[in-house]
Structure formats: C-alpha cells, structure tokens
From TrEMBL:
The lineage of its organism: Bacteria, Pseudomonadati, Pseudomonadota, Alphaproteobacteria, Caulobacterales. Homodimer. Residues 120-202 form the Beta-ketoacyl-[acyl-carrier-protein] synthase III N-terminal domain. NCBIfam families: fabH, PRK09352.1. This is Beta-ketoacyl-[acyl-carrier-protein] synthase III. The keyword Transferase applies. Keywords: Acyltransferase, Cytoplasm, Fatty acid biosynthesis, Fatty acid metabolism, Lipid biosynthesis, Lipid metabolism, Multifunctional enzyme, Transferase. Pathway: Lipid metabolism; fatty acid biosynthesis. Its EC number is 2.3.1.180. It comes from Candidatus Phycosocius bacilliformis.
Length: 335
C-alpha cells in the first residue's frame, strides 16, 4: 500500500506551493518540571532524563486552541507581508478543537477577518501539521487556492489526566502557522514544497488515544498512552518516512539543511538521527522548552529556528512527525 502510493507518477502541476512566512504563539504561563513535582509523584531528574523536557507552556482560562492558532496565524501573515484578504484556504491541524464543530479553522478565519475562503480542520493528532501541509500543497498546486494558512494548534492540557504522571508531564500547549502561496511552476525555481510521505496504521489505535468523543461516551475524555509501545514504533516509522520523502524528491538525506521533527521525546530525536546518520546540529530540538505540543510542535520548532537565524531562505527543510492513529509522515520544502 505505502509502496504503491509512493510510486504514483503525478502529472506536472501548473503551480508550485512556496513558503511565504511563519509565526508561532505559546501561552505565557510556563510550568516547569519542578512545579510538577509539587503536583504529582515525579521529579525533574526523571522527566529530563527520560524525555528531555524541562518545561511546557499551559493555556490560561481565556486561551483556546482557536485563540492560540489565530495569534500564530496573525504573526505568520505579518512575517509573510500577506493581508488576511488574500487568504483563500485555511487548514488547522488539531486534535483539541474549541468545539466539536464548527472547525477551528473557521473560528480562526472569523477572528482574523478573512473573507469567504475554504476552511477546515485536519485530524491526524501529532502528525497533523505534516498532513495539513500535504493537503494545502495539493490544493495550491492544482489551482484550487492561491494563498493558504496552514496552522497547527493544540491545548493538550485540556485532555490530560493530571493524576496520571505517565502522560501529564509530557505535553504542552501552543500553535504555529505557515503561509504558503501558489507560484507558477516555471517561475518557482528550486523553491517550494517538494514532496510528502504520509502513513497511517489504524491497527495501533489503542496504543495512543483519548477515551471519549461525541459518538462514544459523549464526553471529551482523557489522553491514554502506552508510552513504551509507541516509542518502539517511532524511530523505525519516522526513519522510513524520511527516506521515502527524500526518494520522492530526488534528494539525499545529506542534502538536507534542517530537520524539524515532532518534539515528543529527545531520545526519539536522537534515535532517528543515529539511524539516519544525521548531523546532530542539523536537528532542531525544542522539546526541552515546549514539551510535546502535538500538531503544533513542528511549526513551533520551525519558528524557533527561523527566528534565531538558523533556517534561512534557500534552505532545504524536512518536517516529520508521528502520533496517535498511528499516523506519521514527512514533508520536504525548499524555502
Ligand atoms: O506524540 C506522540 C508520540 N508519543 C511518543 O512518541 C511518546 C513515546 N514514548 C515515550 O516517550 C516514553 O515511553 C515515555 C517518556 C512516555 C516513558 O519513558 P520510558 O523510558 O518508556 O519509561 P517507562 O514507561 O518504561 O517507565 C519507567 C518507570 C516506571 O516505573 P517502574 O515500573 O520501573 O517502577 C514508571 O512508573 O518510570 C516510571 N514513571 C515515572 N517516574 C517519574 C513513569 N512516568 C513517570 C514520571 N515520573 N512522570
């Protein structure tokens, strides 16, 4: 199945999606591991040693997935020098929407004053941003939209069981966004979104899930994870998707300037880097400051490295993630 979809020959598209700008937003409330020690039977030493996480941002009572996503999107539009009027596609990757419906993307659209546009959410949990990039890219490349906002926004603190130390210490809240624009392929040069490799395996659904939902139980539910089992799949799955994505784009892993991984666990990042032979200094790591922010983690990490001057115009950047479903995947973009 994965081999056959990867081998599909796509006809040349008239448009190429190019990166125009990015932004991020995290709540101001920082919860350190030391503060968690006062709430549950855990320790800063255990959390840092087993995950690399030192702190996470937690949404305040008035902050929601949509409000964080809207602020990240506003900052991305400013960075791209694109007016809200120019946006005709909004995709929000989230597993923690403000409401069951309407889509968080539509709430963000209203907040930003974006006129009538296409707006919908993508639910692929921690891989959501990579999935959303692929959908936005396909819609831009096929001429269905001209300028897209792709957002990853989450408030996982609202679905954590704060009495379960095996999950509560791992996650945080935040949002990141990118603006992508359609440029005639002939004029894009080497810039643009080059390839994606997406996968899902629903047979693993019970290893990482929320035990509630509108159609089952009628309540929001709380996150449940068999961490070790997820860990066992992570390095192999992510490494395979990176290789497939590079193969599709016709680039070598060693050509990539920056790897921007989903920030679940420092040991997973190190494991992928070892297996793929990556230079550690090319791997953007923010897990210590954000924890695991699910669909927000890749665009948040991207934004940290763009703002501090590491990721620059012309760089070849690989985004990758894995999460509940399981879902996983990679996207390659030349800025
Ligand atoms: O974003 C979606 C993808 N998610 C992931 O990729 C997460 C993948 N999994 C992981 O990152 C790791 O499996 C965890 C960080 C979740 C757990 O690390 P681990 O090294 O697999 O620990 P463990 O589950 O094997 O637990 C080891 C010990 C246990 O105690 P015993 O049974 O050895 O006495 C746990 O009860 O650590 C204990 N423990 C804790 N101790 C202090 C579990 N959580 C904590 C805690 N503080 N917060």
């Amino acid at each position: 199945m994965t081999q056959s979809t990867d081998q599909l020959i796509m006809p040349p598209m008239p448009w190429r999606s190019v990166f125009l700008g990015s932004g991020a937003m995290t709540p101001s409330r920082i919860v350190t591991n030391v503060e968690l020690e006062t709430m549950m039977d855990t320790s800063d030493a255990w959390i840092q040693e087993r995950t690399g996480i030192a702190q996470r941002a937690i949404a305040g009572p008035l902050e929601t997935t949509a409000s964080l996503g809207a602020e990240a999107a506003r900052r991305a539009l400013a960075n791209a020098s694109v007016s809200p009027d120019a946006i005709d596609l909004i995709i929000c990757a989230t597993a923690t929407p403000d409401r069951t419906f309407p889509a968080t993307a539509a709430l963000i659209q209203a907040d930003l004053g974006i006129p009538v546009a296409i707006a919908f959410d993508v639910q692929a949990v921690c891989s959501g941003f990579v999935y959303a990039m692929s959908v936005a890219d396909a819609m831009l490349a096929s001429g269905q939209a001209k300028t897209a906002l792709v957002i990853g926004a989450e408030t996982f603190s609202r679905i954590l069981d704060w009495s379960d130390r095996t999950t509560a210490v791992l996650f945080g809240d935040g949002a990141g966004a990118m603006v992508l624009g359609a440029v005639a392929s002939a004029q894009a040069g080497s810039r643009g979104v080059l390839a994606h490799a997406l996968r899902a395996d629903g047979r693993q659904a019970d290893l990482l899930y929320v035990d509630g939902g509108p159609s089952q139980g009628g309540r929001i539910g709380k996150l449940k994870m068999q961490g070790q089992a997820v860990f066992r799949h992570a390095v192999g799955n992510i490494s395979e998707a990176i290789s497939a994505c590079c193969e599709k784009a016709g680039v070598k892993v060693s050509d990539i300037d920056w790897f921007v991984p989903h920030q679940a666990n420092r040991r997973i990042l190190d494991g992928v880097a070892r297996r793929m032979g990556l230079d550690d200094h090319k791997v953007v790591t923010t897990v210590h400051q954000h924890g695991n922010t699910s669909a927000a983690s890749v665009p948040l990490a991207f934004e940290v490295a763009r703002q501090d001057g590491r990721i620059c115009d012309g760089d070849l950047v690989l985004l990758e993630a894995m999460g509940g479903g399981f879902t996983w995947g990679a996207s390659l973009i030349r800025l």
